[in-house]
Design brief:
Rossmann fold; NADP; alpha/beta; 11 strands; metal-binding; 32% helix; single chain; oxidoreductase; Zinc-type alcohol dehydrogenase-like protein
Length: 283
């Protein structure tokens, strides 16, 4: 595929129009949601071709818009928590573990908070504006810190436990030294944000810290364990239907138009958006 001519867009929800002869789990008319792939054209179009392994039946109790807000960010969070950090699926075994999420009100931070809480972790997030603090609390955070102030001082003032894990979803360079200061010895830091500058990896040595980059499309790019996308989405749908998770949808633009695509990209690039934004293509 010519990447310069690629249709953009990733996660989406909709109705199955047709299936290939090898597809076993879906039929025309099924309501589904999926993460999308950086190896195919994206979801900013009326019809989209998608591999079965990336798709799951969407939650029965959610709208298409609310369902579309979940897949990419939820899979990113699942991969970070279970594949990278290796937390247990037994919530009881995680009850003494603490996770710090940098930027708890973003799309990834919002769903990661819910998943971590559902699986027994204590969750501390960061935010700064009144509306982002309230949103992060709504997502289930046990404590919300102001990331425009000294995080280390706030940990001390509130007598918060040093995190076993830190999930950075914003400005890895800016928080690099702070994360190293905050994390427990032999702790694990994961980030979804690429470094913009050179950082001293030797700074990780004294605490034996593990640092991992999380990239949801690694499985897609290398063609490994792609069935895990569907496995994680099935768990998301189940937890939504059980009332354990809620959608992170916070804004809907009506109609797949050039103006709406421009507005959506502007909002996301402002880095001030809360939760997820969805474009509704059709009824």
């Amino acid at each position: 595929m010519n990447q310069s001519e690629r249709v953009l867009g990733f996660d989406a929800a909709g109705v199955v129009e047709q299936v290939g002869s090898a597809v076993k789990g879906f039929k025309p008319g099924d309501q589904v949601f999926y993460s999308g792939s950086n190896q195919r054209d994206g979801s900013n179009q009326t019809y989209q071709l998608m591999d079965e392994q990336y798709v799951a039946h969407m939650p029965k109790n959610l709208s298409y818009e609310a369902s579309a807000a979940l897949p990419l960010t939820a899979i990113t969070a699942y991969e970070t928590l279970f594949d990278v950090f290796g937390i247990s699926t037994d919530a009881e075994k995680n009850k003494d573990q603490t996770l710090l999420i940098i930027n708890g009100a973003g799309g990834v931070g919002s769903i990661a908070t819910q998943i971590a809480k559902a699986y027994g972790l204590n969750v501390i997030t960061t935010a700064s504006r009144e509306e982002t603090i309230e949103w992060s609390q709504k997502m289930g955070a046990d404590a919300v810190l102001n990331h425009k102030s000294d995080l280390k001082a706030q940990f001390k003032e509130q007598q918060l436990k040093q995190p076993n894990y830190i999930f950075c979803t914003y400005d890895t360079d800016g928080y690099y030294d702070t994360m190293i200061d905050l994390i427990q010895p032999r702790g694990h830091i994961a980030t979804i944000v690429a470094f913009q500058n050179k950082q001293d990896l030797n700074a990780l040595k004294a605490k034996s810290i593990t640092l991992t980059h999380e990239f949801m499309f690694t499985r897609a790019v290398h063609g490994v364990e792609e069935q895990m996308y569907q496995t994680y989405l099935k768990d998301v749908a189940e937890k939504i239907e059980q009332g354990v998770y809620q959608s992170t949808l916070n804004n809907v633009l009506e109609g797949l138009t050039v103006d709406n695509l421009f507005k959506a990209h502007q909002q996301m690039e402002s880095q001030a958006h809360i939760g997820k934004l969805v474009i509704k293509i059709a009824d």
